[in-house]
Design goal:
Immunoglobulin-like; Purple Acid Phosphatase, chain A, domain 2; 3 domains; 29 strands; about 15% helix; globular; signal; Purple_acid_Pase-like_N; metal ion binding; Purple acid phosphatase
């Protein structure tokens, strides 16, 4: 949309905000003991905004400018408002005419996720239709065949489900209705077409556009399987607008590199710090729209991070305000994961020759905890002859990182992390452990108890005698500095935006690649070659009991 401004008293700090619903409260609502509320302090937070001189440097002399905004359908009408006084002391000057999408309630932003069994795919989407207004479903089937319809469940939540401000106050926006359908009994490796539907009371249908996905391979199937892993991506505005928590400069580059390579990706893991909405609810729509080309085509599996979950006195392991009052509700509702209880965001999922054990660092993981028991069960129950590639992933760094702040603490990881879990990684011979939270890239040697157990750097073969730990939190958010000390276990560090791609060629060969988001090229890599007997072999602190009996 193009917004034209004509203001007889222009100033360098005039700005135009995008508001939805169009009828908004422009009063000032300064924070009260709230470290997460951000300027501009308006009682109805704008979705985004631009300064009036963004496209015309002569605005302060002419009072005339034209601004272009990219809008997405967010289930309500829109207006644009001109403010003077900058973002610190905003004063409403004028409001535009109201505009709306043709069908504000339309089903949008599908996101796929693996179900609780290998032959199940879930489809989650957002609409403006309550179940009293329309019945949600997915029409789907093998491409080119007669489709069937599967029902969908519907969830939503209200302002009183938020734990604090800004999510409960100025950042609140109605999330619409979140629908999830479970597509079951899928044939392996088959392309399925689908579209989202809502049946209205008069018998007519509301349809989304058509999408497709490829179903998962049978667990243990020997075929080419490609996985992308990253953390802390967030979102950004393609039209150059400012937004709350506007500090994810690498987000769009990472998104675009994945879209460009989508035909060579089978499943994506975004391991925490998903949107950085931080209590400004409208930004979850912005994020799901940004990743729609990816999440509508391949499973988009998420993990919980501090910016999704943490809030004081809400049950999070860390008693901080990083979620902006969301306390996990948005992440648990907007995305499906195959957890037994989505409020406890840990789960196991299989993809062909891979087993993934996804931990929730915002809940207690220490020995004796409920989550510790889950992690051991996940690692212990995989059949390594069929699924040789065992991956552990979590948001905060429970293993190894030479991040500046971890170095200052002297722990070079989240305190208490590896002290609790390294015995399990070693016992069950985890191949690679991935983390976000720290916004850079770092790879360790195969390590156990702070010691490298393999001198190789680019090719590993034979017995699994230690876990490689990888920080891959540089997908979008502002970058994190490294410690001036480089520990002996740190092989490669990169202060840049990027992501990791794993390619399993078969049961014996794995390729690891770190790619930069700026160009999609590979800047660090290694290969693993081994046989089943190498996984079974006895290594330090990972030997099965034996007997002298014959």
């Amino acid at each position: 949309m193009t917004v034209h401004i004509d203001f007889p008293d222009p100033s360098v700090d005039d700005w135009v905000g995008v508001f939805s619903p169009a009828n908004f409260n422009s009063s000032s609502c300064p924070p009260v003991n709230d470290p997460k509320e951000q300027i501009p302090f308006i009682c109805s937070a704008p979705i985004k905004y631009k300064f009036s001189n963004y496209s015309n440097s002569r605005y302060t002399k002419t009072g005339k400018a034209s601004l272009r905004f990219q809008l997405i359908n967010q289930r309500a009408d829109f207006s644009f408002a001109l403010f003077s006084g900058g973002t610190s002391n905003p004063k409403l000057v004028a409001v535009s005419n109201f505009i709306s999408f043709a069908n504000p309630k339309a089903p949008l932003y599908p996101r796929l996720a693996q179900g609780k069994s290998w032959d199940e795919m879930t489809v989650t989407w957002t609409s403006g239709y309550d179940i009293k207004e329309a019945t949600p479903f997915v029409e789907w089937g093998p491409q080119g065949k007669t489709p069937v319809q599967s029902p969908a469940g519907t969830l939503t939540f209200g302002r009183n489900s938020m734990c604090g401000s800004p999510a409960r106050t100025v950042g609140w926006r109605d999330p619409g209705f979140i629908h999830t359908s479970f597509l079951k009994n899928l044939w392996p490796n088959l392309v399925y077409a689908y579209r989202l539907g809502h049946l209205l009371p008069d018998g007519s249908y509301i349809w989304s556009k058509k999408y497709s996905f490829k179903s998962s391979p049978y667990p243990g199937q020997d075929s080419l399987q490609r996985v992308v892993i990253f953390g802390d991506m967030g979102k950004a505005e393609r039209d150059g607008s400012n937004e709350y928590s506007n500090y994810q400069p690498g987000s769009l580059n990472t998104t675009d590199r994945l879209i460009e390579d989508l035909k060579n990706i089978d499943v994506v893991f975004h391991i925490g710090d998903i949107t950085y909405a931080n209590g400004y609810i409208s930004q979850w729509d912005q994020f799901t729209a940004q990743v729609e080309p990816i999440a509508s085509t391949v499973p988009y599996m998420i993990a919980s991070g501090n910016h999704e979950r943490d809030w004081p006195n809400s049950g999070s392991f860390y008693d901080v305000t990083d979620s902006g009052g969301e306390c996990g509700v948005l992440a648990e509702t907007m995305f499906y994961v195959p957890a037994e209880n989505r409020a406890k965001f840990w789960y196991a999922t299989d993809y062909g020759m891979f087993r993934f054990c996804i931990a929730d660092t915002e809940h207690d993981w220490r020995e004796g905890s409920e989550q510790y028991k889950f992690i051991e069960h996940c690692l212990a129950t995989v059949d390594r002859q069929k699924q040789p590639w065992l991956i552990f992933a979590a948001h905060r760094v429970l293993g190894y990182s030479s991040d500046f702040w971890y170095g200052m603490e002297g722990s070079f990881a989240e305190p208490m992390g590896r002290e609790s879990l390294q015995r399990l990684w070693q016992k069950y011979k985890v191949d690679i452990a991935f983390y976000g939270h720290v916004h850079n890239y770092e790879r360790t040697c195969p390590v156990y108890q702070n010691q490298c157990v393999n001198k190789e750097k680019s090719h590993y073969s034979g017995i699994v005698n230690g876990t490689i730990h990888v920080v891959v939190g540089g997908a979008g958010s502002h970058l994190s500095n490294f410690s001036q000390v480089t520990p002996s276990w740190s092989l490669y560090r990169d202060y840049d935006f990027g992501f990791v791609k794993l390619t399993a060629f078969n049961h014996s060969s794995l390729l690891f690649e770190y790619k930069k988001s700026s160009d999609g090229n590979v800047y660090d890599s290694f290969t693993v070659s081994r046989d089943y007997k190498d996984v079974l072999a006895c290594v330090h602190d990972s030997c099965e009991a034996t007997t002298l009996a014959s």
